[in-house]
């Protein structure tokens, strides 16, 4: 959502402009959690009006070499569009199983939550 100054010198929402890029793009599924099944397209969408919860791994870096059997601390941040982060779940087997990461101090709405997870890779990983 944004504004522009029209001919009458009053603020008007971008949605009033038919050429607005928000009409065909920058849209999310109109479903609870803004999710759809993998490989499908949403039936209905709405303009982005909130940020979905996201998480980023910051350590180890993607090119790091990990030793089999040696514990490695995976660290990251999680953030949302105005909600506190209650938990971060980590899967090391492509979603077959999940384990809770340890969360840092809750700093309230709109703040990033640090998390860490200790993992021992095996030769199969």
UniProtKB/TrEMBL annotation:
What InterPro entries is this protein classified in?
Ig_E-set (IPR014756), MoCF_OxRdtse_dimer (IPR005066)
Q: Which residues form the Moybdenum cofactor oxidoreductase dimerisation domain?
A: 48-115
- Pfam families reported for this sequence: Mo-co_dimer (PF03404)
Question: Which GO BP terms apply?
Answer: sulfur compound metabolic process
MF terms from GO for this chain are: heme binding; molybdenum ion binding; molybdopterin cofactor binding; sulfite oxidase activity
**Coiled coil stretches, renumbered:** none
Q: Which PANTHER family match?
A: SULFITE OXIDASE, MITOCHONDRIAL, SULFITE REDUCTASE
Please state what the protein is called.
Oxidoreductase, molybdopterin binding
In its UniProt entry, the species of origin is given as Candidatus Magnetobacterium bavaricum
What phylogenetic lineage does the species belong to?
Answer: Bacteria, Pseudomonadati, Nitrospirota, Thermodesulfovibrionia, Thermodesulfovibrionales
């Amino acid at each position: 959502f944004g504004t522009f100054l029209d001919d009458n010198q009053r603020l008007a929402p971008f949605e009033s402009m038919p050429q607005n890029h928000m009409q065909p793009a920058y849209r999310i599924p109109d479903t609870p959690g803004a999710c759809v099944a993998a490989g499908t397209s949403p039936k209905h969408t709405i303009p982005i009006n909130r940020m979905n919860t996201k998480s980023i791994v910051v350590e180890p870096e993607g090119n790091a070499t990990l030793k089999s059997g040696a514990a490695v601390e995976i660290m990251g941040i999680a953030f949302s569009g105005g909600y506190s982060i209650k938990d971060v779940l980590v899967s090391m087997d492509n979603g077959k199983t999940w384990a809770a990461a340890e969360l840092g101090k809750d700093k309230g709405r709109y703040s990033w939550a640090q998390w860490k997870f200790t993992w021992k890779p095996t030769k199969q990983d």
